[in-house]
């Protein structure tokens, strides 16, 4: 899969009528007058990263063409097709990767696929997507309940439940099955990437690739590098994330990385204040929306993340830091124990069945 990025740069009269063509058969027939910040995906057998500069007769501008070849990564395995796994599968399939989504049961894979289909149909209704692209995305995704199906993947992204034992079991198993060149990545929010990598025999090919919810909308990916991650692995992970249109920030392998170390205490404090009776649910959410310009209040956000996932992350961070900032409020634990997991279960701080 090759991504071709086309973007304007400043006007440059010096280039005059010079036009340079990319000497790759069938690569691009640039319609230079169309060039605005725009991405074109097309399959090309080409194995380097190159930058070309064109002069556009039509716009009298210099045009930079940046060709990124995802040389190594063509087939992506995704473990867990819940909220995050299905979102990652969707964006990877959209960018023309072949995606194989692994779940513990066929039923759960179908549930993830249904989530993707629903989102794509909604995008079509809003005029943001066309039907051929919908078909392409769905055609690029296949399901699996057997790790053996991931043997020839170039990249495997684990997005299973936030639990160290579960994730270590997954990677130990994958390590026996996957080809030697595979890159392993975890989407964990709070667990140590180095600890996860330690159960594999390829710690240099292991990184954190932390996407945000909802994946098709949120532009950030945190790449987490361990002391063992190689430069090549980090570069390939960055190239992959950027080929999905994401912006990358690099984070240390420290619990919560950048975003969650800041976000989780805020969410826990909002639940604590609600539990204490400081204000109503709606007033807490509205206060942060209208007073601080947040797109949604913290109780809604916790529902969207998943109250179980919020609790898992809090417990892991508390265990690591031993700091009361990260101590989960009893209300959160009670809600999770009662099956109130937020939007994904239909009920959390809000009722989504209405
Ligand atoms: N929810 C968020 O906002 C968010 C954001 C960023 C990262 N994350 C991280 O992403 C991961 C997944 O979170 P989620 O919100 O998608 O959770 P989720 O509960 O929606 O999905 C987890 C999925 O993993 C599957 N699973 C569990 N064990 C498995 C196994 N052995 N093999 C295959 N599949 C397995 C489960 O069946 C489930 O469908 C967690 O590590 C979480 O911390 C979550």
Notable characteristics:
single chain, 354 residues, alpha/beta, Rossmann fold, N-(1-d-carboxylethyl)-l-norvaline Dehydrogenase, domain 2, eight-stranded mixed beta sheet, four-stranded antiparallel beta sheet, 11 helices, 19% strand, disordered N terminus, binds nicotinamide-adenine-dinucleotide
Structure write-up:
By secondary structure, this protein is of the alpha/beta class. The chain has helices at 83-94, 106-125, 131-139, 164-177, 193-197, 231-243, 259-276, 281-292, 298-305, 307-321, 330-337; strands at residues 2-8, 38-42, 50-56, 61-69, 75-79, 98-102, 141-144, 155-158, 183-186, 206-211, 220-225, 247-252. It folds into three domains: 2-69, no CATH class; 75-252, NAD(P)-binding Rossmann-like Domain (Rossmann fold), CATH 3.40.50.720; 259-345, Orthogonal Bundle (N-(1-d-carboxylethyl)-l-norvaline Dehydrogenase, domain 2). It is 38% helix and 19% strand. The protein has an eight-stranded mixed beta sheet, sandwiched between helices. The two termini are 43 Å apart. Nicotinamide-adenine-dinucleotide binds next to helix 1, helix 4 and strand 10.
